[in-house]
Amino acid sequence: MPIDVVLKAELRNGLTIYPVESVVAFGVDAFVTDRFGGVSSSPYDSLNLGDHVGDRASDVEENRRRVAHAASVDPMSLVIVRQVHGADVMDASLASETSEADGLVTESDDVVLAMLVADCLPILLADRSSRRFALVHAGWRGLSKGVLSKALDTFENSATVHAFIGPSISREAYQVGPDVAQHFTDVENALMPDGEDRSRLDLRRVAIHQLRQGGVADESIGQSRQVTDGGEVFFSDRAQRPCGRFAVVAKRAS
Questions:
Q1: What is the secondary structure of 95-122 as a DSSP string?
Q2: Among 122, 94, 121, residue whose Cα is nearest residue 106
Q3: What DSSP state is assigned to residue 87?
Q4: Are 117 and 16 in contact (CB under 8 A)?
Q5: pLDDT of residue 97
Q6: Are residues 176 and 237 in contact, defined by beta-carbon separation less than 8 angstroms?
Q7: Listed residue (74, 2, 76, 78) closest to 33, CA to CA
Q8: Is the confidence at residue 117, as pLDDT, over 90?
Q9: What contacts 60, CB < 8 A, 6 or more positions away?
Q10: What's the topology of domain 3-170+216-252?
Q11: N- to C-terminal Cα distance for the chain?
């Protein structure tokens, strides 16, 4: 079975972050941000990292600077692309501010990857046999389009890949209609009936199913016990609209 992990908060360069300890052995320094410690006003309070949700650009820029400082890097090395709920995975060295992708991959020491979320799955992939690592943004659209499979394809051997699923919405808080549910009827226990034509969808179970299909071993899959439900610690689009975005941030360990 996949390993459940409780992320523990720590203060790093003045910002509270949640390190992903399971990838340290693979030479990756990764952490999750929450919604605190930034400068954005309500409803984006306060560490909103999304520049596409209606927040003040200057506030987002300062928030990203604080995250870069927590990662001990120059803000210019922080790679964030436009996420479009698609299946494109790109090399971070080719990314620009206008690039559209829902997966980033690199082996470089010179960049820091960040994927923004507010209920969708932030998934970190790290290879124990190479320097390669990746971040994936996976909501129901991305999962149905194969973004996770495409990310795994960028690794030479998925059997040596470790996957970590960060804070995301729980099945209990995620009601969907038949238009969404139809994509995941083949995943055991991913859907729970919830009324006449509604279901509760377990995005994590879908991702774990796809990771297994892609060759990742159960013992190499970890998932955060923390969820975004309610939006109190991590931003949640289901709990409040508009809302900010938090991130999973990853770089090669120095």
A1: --TT-B-SEEEE--SS-EEEEEESSSEE
A2: 94
A3: -
A4: no
A5: 84
A6: no
A7: 78
A8: yes
A9: 40, 48, 49, 50, 51
A10: CNF1/YfiH-like putative cysteine hydrolases (3.60.140)
A11: 32
